[in-house]
Amino acid sequence: MSRPLTGTVAVSAAHGFAGSAFAGTVVLAAAAVLAVLLITYLASRRAGRHSVIDTAWGLLFCAVAVVAFSRSAAHGDGGRRLLLLAMTLLWGLRLAVRIGRRSAGKGEDPRYAALLRNRGTLQTLALVYGLQGVLVLLVSAPILVGSFERGGLGWLAIVGALVWTIGLLFEAVGDWQLDRYQRDKAAGVEVGPVLDGGLWRYTRHPNYFGDACVWLGIFCVSAERWPGVLTVFAPVIMVYLLAFGSGKRLLERSMAGRPGYRDYMARTSGFVPWPPRHRSARPSDTP
């Protein structure tokens, strides 16, 4: 007769991770990402611009979250599965609607035009669609792993949900303030050369900072149980891209030549919100 499992062995068996089901889910998630990318590519051909991929960015994560939620029903904790699905869908759908409305009727994004100049079809597919597909799967690791974790929600999941909420508010409020500034400027309302009020007074990129908080929050929900902590590379990748990679760096390179922007950079935090630095007036600062 076999001996009963006791102590840590029993706990491990009770909270085991369904590795084979997880592996199959990763394959299906990759297939879902590929399907969304294919639809996006066809839409970009019709629209005549590859920046359509920006609208699809949030939808790619939504596709992964839906696959993870549906496939983990018999394996993961119901509360964690539902929380990860809701966090991803609310973030991804809001972002897709926001970017879709902003880019409607516009031409190619100058960043894509510069990146794809003198590139062939295969290079374009790899640089724009293939690379983003790989990034989505990597960054989605906490969603995929967390959906299969057993054990109920605890204090770290609550912290993660709070961080996620702060991040979503930063994104949504920052975008709303930017839209209002641009509408006022287009209507002839007297505004400054740069937006430096509201959240933009404390960080030059409230939407990027908010995005980082969203993914740190999702990671915390997953990291509460084993092996979610192993997905720490996902928020690291996202934060690096936002703060040092294709997000902040490329945007500020294109904005640096605008009147007043360098002075704005000198007094305002580049990423993490912080009170602005006070600078003494110089001849170049006065009209």
Descriptive overview:
- The chain is 66% helix and 0% strand.
- By secondary structure, it is mainly alpha-helical.
- The protein folds into two domains: 19-106 and 118-152, no CATH class; 155-277.
- The longest helix has 32 residues, at 155-186.
- The protein starts with 6 loop residues before the first helix and ends in a 20-residue tail after the last helix.
Task: Characterize the largest beta sheet: strand count, sense, and whether it forms a barrel.
Answer: none
Structural class: mainly alpha
Q: What gross morphology would you assign?
A: globular
Helix tally equals 12
Written as H for each helix and E for each strand, in order along the chain, the element string is HHHHHHHHHHHH
Task: Please outline the helices and strands.
Layout: H1 7-14, H2 19-47, H3 52-71, H4 78-103, H5 110-115, H6 121-139, H7 141-146, H8 155-186, H9 206-223, H10 233-243, H11 248-255, H12 261-267
Short recap of the structure:
This protein has 287 residues and is an all-alpha fold. The chain has helices at 7-14, 19-47, 52-71, 78-103, 110-115, 121-139, 141-146, 155-186, 206-223, 233-243, 248-255, 261-267.
